[in-house]
Specification:
195 residues; mainly alpha; Growth Hormone, Chain: A; 8 helices; 80% helix; 0% strand
């Protein structure tokens, strides 16, 4: 996408968002089992409900949010909520508090489609396929890298030799990545790109 310099920062933000989004897929089972002593049934129920809530957000809430709030506010609000909710997973003192953070994380999913629309407006009609391919490539790459990063951090956090590292460090890092993506989005708008 070197033909579209405006995508450099947006692409970096997309990498951060996608990598951040991989956190729950890579460490939630380990984390909730270790911290809250959840059973496979407990984790399965959470993941099932997260899947259904994500589907509801994508098929209904996104359209409503954009219609009432506008695309920009939906994007920034959704991405900010996701960053905050992801970081909240790290400090949730109980299983029910973790559930609440997961609900907020799902609701924050309204920001993703608006981000994709912002990126799509940066390229011409003949480059939409290349952009879609790049997006799929980012998802694939982060899906391979995320387990190493986030499970590695979790493994470090549970070791006796690293009591200074919080147990929820993978979620804290992911929340920071999401916050960085929000900053990139704001920077993009200030630079006058087609936001």
């Amino acid at each position: 996408m070197r033909d579209y310099p405006s995508l450099r920062w947006l692409g970096a933000g997309a990498i951060l968002l996608t990598l951040s989004g991989q956190t729950i897929n890579t460490v939630a089972v380990l984390y909730t089992t270790y911290r809250y002593h959840w059973t496979p049934g407990d984790v399965g129920l959470l993941m099932t409900l997260m899947g259904f809530s994500g589907m509801a957000v994508q098929t209904g809430l996104v359209r409503l949010a954009i219609a009432h709030l506008g695309e920009w506010t939906t994007m920034i609000g959704g991405l900010s909520l996701q960053a905050l909710a992801t970081a909240s997973l790290a400090i949730a003192p109980t299983g029910p508090a973790y559930w609440v953070a997961c609900v907020a994380l799902s609701l924050g999913g309204v920001g993703g489609p608006a981000w994709q629309a912002l990126m799509s407006r940066q390229v011409g009609p003949t480059a939409q396929g290349r952009l879609a391919g790049a997006s799929v490539g980012i998802t694939s790459l982060t899906g391979m890298v995320a387990p190493f990063i986030f499970t590695g951090l979790f493994a470090l956090a549970v070791r006796e030799k690293t009591p200074w590292l919080p147990l929820g460090t993978p979620f804290l890092l992911a929340g920071c990545m999401g916050a960085a993506a929000v900053i990139i989005a704001v920077r993009t708008r200030r630079k006058g790109l087609h936001a």
